[in-house]
Structure formats: structure tokens, C-alpha cells
Design a protein that fits this description.
Radius of gyration of chain A: 22 Å
Oligomer: homodimer
Structural class of chain A: alpha+beta
Largest interface: A-B, 67 and 67 residues
Low-confidence stretches of chain A: 183-189
Number of helices of chain A: 12
Largest sheet of chain A: 9 strands, mixed
Chain lengths: 413, 413
């Protein structure tokens, strides 16, 4: 697997662009993005599980039902959620406008929105600028970047990646962009992720590979415990790499070698985006990886790791570089998972080294200064051992800092 | 029902005291508390549901098994949790030390601890000062206050209340103290609550009344989502009011009029303490009450209200006095409760007035300035209407401020 440049434009046959249409008020930033494939694509998507779904989610669920897509249109600055019939009409209109402009069917377009909830989407701003949006399409990295900038809200860093792998002697590329910083929590929250690939792959294999990758990445990310109304991860595959079609179902014997390669590459793409999102959690100063090992099952390991990773007290302790492992055990204790506290070990790791702070559920003699040194780095790992089995799982989070309050205390103004 | 002074010493026959024994380092504050009844008491208690339980919780569960108590000994500055066999020995020793001093059985003493997790409890400090602790006992409000001060950690306000009611022509008193600010979450977290009453009441009625009161108060409180290893609420009843014994089981027809009066009074005591704890949440600037009405069931109403009350985004919006009702709907959406978003109404209320901001799941025209004025008060209420049924429930929370990070980023130093 090789990391390459180009983002969503790295795979053959994809174009992207972004412009400013004026939805984001008072900011001279892009707020309308487009990703487009000249050829027909197989597509798969995963959407928010929030009971309150944005209009864009409802319309996109309809449009992707047949597994075919050619375009993604996305705006930032307005979530178009809790906006009733007007919101549904506006989301459908977005799909129609871009479909007309690109001469595709409206059902071939996914619609995504992110921003403030409950404010009517100013669809006229999109209508007025729809030709300019099409005109912004480019097949190089500049197109990718313009689109990526147009989906960012409180994000402080760009989140994108592209990789290439070889399948049956053919180069297959996967490119991706994501936005999301606050409100990211299992499962899938205020996160938009658009993935392109030139792999030839059956629709069911694409769907299985996406769900597998999302479960092992975005669904193991927690920033502030809130899950949003607008999340989606979408993948489009146009087959232009001309590999033998990738075939497979997760967990079954029916898969070819291409599926394994593709799946691993897609998981890598999603995990890297997940780590970028955790690092860019609102106000975050640190990327926290919580790794639970020695678990009886994957489910239990995930439950325990997420509980520790979500705890406000663990997150503030990490912010303060305080080796307060008692908070880790306490968070495990209210996770709902059954485990033996007297067998638990806890350690901390970073580029500065590794230290064990708890063994068999009790403190061990350790140097507080050494622990503080390790926890002061920008990427830290909390290592939890259960001594019950062989399952090992990582989840990602970030610390909770003053700036989280600053960003969210007055987000709308 | 009349509010009276005296705290846990208000009911006849109870004494309390508190001293400094040196467990809290570097602070000239009380850290060892005692509550004592000269007569035998019926007793009931509710403990943390955290899988990781402090030694004090495990020992107290043993001691209260027979429903009899005469004393509570509590320390702050050390949680005696995750401390293994040494911790269990220390908790048992605390019970023995105070039992010897008071000439009661060790099983008649409840042991409580609060403070940092994972550090061995310096039991020698308690041993050395156990006579002084007994000597500090007083039957007036000063004794109550000395004990209350000794259980406070990051609390910035004292939490206590006493009431009197009339049962069968006799005056019956209930007095209570509580500590807790951070880590308070359903169910029952880093919260200590000690309640005394001179009511004559059967052990089973006392147990039912306590569980009912706790479910309608402390278990509807959320500060930071963490639940602790050390929580307990304990009530002792010595019968000195000489009322006809209170008899009753919650939810059954078998109860006398005294039960209803006692139950309502105990619920009031616990709700008032809950509101004090919410207002004193770590770094909190506001008390938030979330009231869900029009629900199909009490369970659903609680689930929805707690989800909104726990959301970091809702809490920071309240801190910023930002009428961001979309975050309220979003939090309801991921609560797991089934409801129709298109029927939801949201409003805000405080001493400055009331304003509706969402109707039928959509925004209504409202004045942002007026909403900000209402949300700027120290006590605010989020009103959620479901239009599905007749159940109405309130839960309590507080906002999330810069000071939460400050307090918890370096709690141990």
C-alpha cells in the first residue's frame, strides 16, 4: 500500500470542485462542494443512526437505494436539519439542480449538509451558483482541496488521504476527504466522509467493505459524546482501474484476493481519517488512543475502551497530563461490561516512552514526573490489559480543553 | 412541610461532628466526619452501581445487610478505591475504630470515603484521631456543619436541608447532608448523602421510601456523565418522634397515611439536595432543569431528558446563553428512545420569562436577544413537549464551563 497525493481526484475518472455561494455568513470561505464521476459508479453509504435525521440524509438514503451514484453535492454553514417540509424540498432541489447541470439523474446525486441545526437552508444561494460549482470541477488535487475546504466547519485541519494498491497487476486507487471535529461519537456523528475509488468491485462487496471499515474506524471515535443528525460516509467506485472485479462478503468464505487487499486499504484510509478527526476534536490538544487487550470478546473490548475514551474526567486528566488512572478504572466500571477489576492493568505510552501505573487493579510505584513527561506529548495511548482473553481493540479520542468550551459556548454567533 | 435548621442534628437523638486528621494534604480543612445516634436505628442505603466499588462501599454493604445502624464515619481526601486488600482492611479498621470508641458493634457503622482513587488510605491518621472525632460530637447545628465540611471535596457550597412534618399528631423531622459536584451522573455518582430521621418506621418502609426518593432525585442528576466508585445514600431512623410506625411498600396498596407524608418529605429533601448538587457541578455557572412533558411513559421521558441534560453541546450552549435548540433535538435523537421529531416543541424558561423556540420539530420566529436574556439567568429550564401522552419528568444538570476543565485537568495536584 502506497500513500499518494490527489485526495478524491487520485482515482482515475473523478473530478472535484468547490466554491463560495454565501451560506456561511461573514466568512470568505468555500461552502459548496462537488465530487463527480464521468462514468457510472457503484456506490455504498452509511448514515447517522440519530432518530432526528437531516433532510440531506433522508434524501440521500432514497437516492443511494439502487447502489448507483455519480455525484456528491455538499454544503457547509447550514445542517438543513429540523427544517420540516421546506428542508426536504430544499434537499431534493439541491439534487435536481446539480443533476440538471451535470446531465445526470437526480437519483445519481448524494446530498450532504453540515452546520447549524434548525435554520432554513437558503437554497437560492445554491441555485444562483450551481453553474459556477460545475465550472469549478477539476481532476487534480486543487479540485479536491477546493471541495474539501467547502465542507469544513470548525475543523482546523484538512482531513484527506489517498492510497494505491495492486490488484491483479492493476493499480487501484482510493481517495478520501472528511470533515468533523466536534460531536463525533459512535456511531458516526457530524462527520462527512466522501471516498472515491477506481476499483472494479461489485455493489455488495463495496457495501460490505465500507461497513467493515466504518465499524473499525469512525465508529470507534469519540470526541464529545454527541452524535449528529447529518453524518454520512459515502463511497463511489467507477471501475476504471480495470482490475478483475473485487468480490466478497465480510465474514464469509466467498471472497477473492482482491477483496482482502481492497478491504485492508479502505480500512487504512478510514482509520487514518479517524485519527485526523480525533486529533482535530474541538479544542483538542492531544490525540488519545485507548487500547484494550486481553479481552474475552471484541464487543467487550470496544465497550470498555469507549467508556474510558468518552469519560470527561479521563479526557481532562489527559489535557492536564495527569496520570490519574483511577478515572480510567472508574469509567470501565460504569461501562456496563462485566470484567474483573482486580485483574486490570493500566499503562500510558507516547513517543516519550511507556510506563505502567496500575497492576492487578492497584497502584504500582511509578514516577509521577516520568508519567507526566509521557502524557505531555501530542499523541498518547492508554493501555488497558484485562488478562481474560485474546481480543485487542483500539478506539480514538481527544482531550477536553478550555477551547472546547470556547468553541461550543457560542457556536452560532 | 416546614424547612428547619440543624441539618442531620435536627431530628431528635442524633449527634454529629467533624475534625481534621490530615488525610487531605496541604489544606487546613476537616476531613473526618461522624454521625451518631444514641438509640438503635433502622437503616437503608443505596450504593453505586459501578463495577469498580470502593472498599468503603463493599464494607458498608456488608454492615447494612441487617438493616441496623448507629453511626456513619466518613473521610474525604482519599477514595480508598482500587486499593486491594490493604483498602478492604483499612475500611474494616475504620468501622472497628469508631465502634470501639462509641461502644457499638462494628456492623452498626457505615464507612464512606471520597477523594482520589488508587492511593492507599492512611488509616493511621484516622486511628490517631479517633478519640478527637468522638469528642467532636454535638447535637446542634455546629456538629452538623463540622461533619458536612469534613466530607466536602471540590464542593464550593454546603448542601444540607432539614424539614419537619406532622404524622399522627407527632412532629417528625428529617435532616440531611450531601457532597458531590463532579462525576455525578445517573446512577448515583461520587455522591455521599447521609440522612437522619426520628420517624418511627419499619425497615422495609424505610428502604422503599429511600429507593423511591433516590430514583426521583439523585438518579435524575447528571453533571459530567461519569459515575463513581464511592457513592452512597444512607438513611437512619431512630423512632424518637414516637409517631405510630410508618408502614408501606412503594407501588402497593399496603401503606398508611404516615408513609405518604414521610415519602413526600424524603423526596423533597433528596430533590433539594439534587438541585444543590447540580448548581454546584464542577465549574458550573448555571442550574439546568430539563423537563419533558407529554410523554407516553415515565421511562421514555427520563431517557430523553437525561440525554439532553448530559449533552456536552447542550451544556456549553447553556453556558454561552445560546438558544441552540437544535442541539436539544439532536441529543434526544441519539437517546435511544422512540419519538416523533416532527411533534416536538422546545422552550426555555427562567426568572426572566419563557420563550418557545421550536414547534412541531421546526424553528419558530423568536427573538434571539430575548432568548439570551432568559438563558443568562443562573437557573434555567429547558422545556420539551412530545405531544404523545401525559407523563412529565424533570432531570437536573449544569452547564459546562472553562472551570470544569481547570478543576479536572489537575485534580490530584
Amino acid at each position: 500500500m502506497k500513500t499518494i497525493t490527489g485526495g478524491v481526484c487520485a482515482p482515475k475518472g473523478f473530478m472535484a470542485g468547490g466554491i463560495r455561494c454565501g451560506i456561511k455568513q461573514g466568512l470568505q470561505k468555500n461552502d459548496l462542494a462537488l465530487i463527480y464521476s464521468k462514468e457510472f459508479c457503484s456506490a455504498a453509504a452509511v448514515f447517522t443512526e440519530n432518530k432526528v435525521k437531516a433532510a440531506s440524509v433522508l434524501v440521500s438514503q432514497e437516492n443511494i437505494a439502487n447502489g448507483k451514484l455519480r455525484a456528491v453535492i455538499a454544503n457547509s454553514g447550514n445542517a438543513n436539519a429540523c427544517t420540516g417540509k421546506h428542508g426536504m424540498d430544499a434537499a431534493r432541489r439541491m439534487a435536481h439542480l446539480i443533476a440538471d447541470e451535470l446531465s445526470i439523474a437526480p437519483s445519481e446525486a448524494v446530498v450532504a449538509s453540515t452546520g447549524v441545526i434548525g435554520v432554513p437552508l437558503p437554497i437560492e444561494a445554491i441555485e444562483k451558483n450551481i453553474s459556477a460549482l460545475k465550472a469549478s470541477l477539476r481532476s487534480d488535487e486543487a479540485g479536491h482541496t477546493a471541495a474539501l475546504e467547502a465542507i469544513m466547519t470548525t475543523d482546523t485541519r484538512k482531513k484527506d488521504i489517498a492510497v494505491e494498491v495492486e490488484i491483479d497487476g492493476k493499480i487501484v486507487r482510493i481517495g478520501a476527504m472528511a470533515k468533523g471535529s466536534g460531536m463525533i461519537h459512535p456511531n458516526m456523528a457530524t462527520m462527512l466522509c466522501f471516498i472515491t475509488t477506481d476499483a472494479a468491485i461489485t455493489p455488495s462487496a463495496l457495501d460490505c467493505a465500507l461497513r467493515y471499515a466504518v465499524n473499525h474506524s469512525f465508529n470507534r471515535l469519540t470526541v464529545d459524546g454527541d452524535t449528529s443528525t447529518n453524518d454520512m460516509a459515502v463511497i463511489m467506485a467507477n471501475g476504471e482501474a480495470e482490475n478483475n472485479p473485487v468480490i466478497g462478503y465480510q465474514g464469509s468464505g466467498i471472497k477473492n484476493r482482491g477483496y482482502e487487499i481492497f478491504c485492508r486499504a479502505l480500512e487504512h484510509v478510514c482509520v487514518e481519517l479517524t485519527r485526523m478527526m480525533a486529533r482535530d476534536g474541538e479544542g483538542a490538544t492531544k490525540l488519545i488512543t485507548v487500547t484494550v487487550s486481553g479481552a474475552q470478546s471484541e464487543e467487550k473490548a470496544v465497550l470498555l475502551a469507549k467508556s474510558a475514551a468518552s469519560s470527561s474526567l479521563v479526557k481532562t486528566a489527559c489535557f492536564g497530563a495527569d496520570a490519574n488512572w483511577g478515572r480510567v478504572l472508574c469509567a470501565m466500571g460504569y461501562s456496563g461490561a462485566d470484567f474483573d477489576p482486580s485483574k486490570v492493568s493500566v499503562g500510558f505510552r507516547s513517543s516519550a516512552g511507556e510506563i505502567q501505573v496500575c497492576s492487578e487493579g492497584q497502584t504500582v510505584n511509578f514516577s509521577e514526573e516520568r508519567a507526566k513527561e509521557i502524557l505531555s506529548r501530542e499523541e498518547i495511548e492508554i493501555l488497558i490489559g484485562l488478562s481474560e482473553g485474546n481480543y485487542k481493540v483500539s478506539v480514538w479520542s481527544c482531550d477536553l480543553s478550555y477551547d472546547y468550551i470556547k468553541i461550543n459556548g457560542d457556536y452560532r454567533s
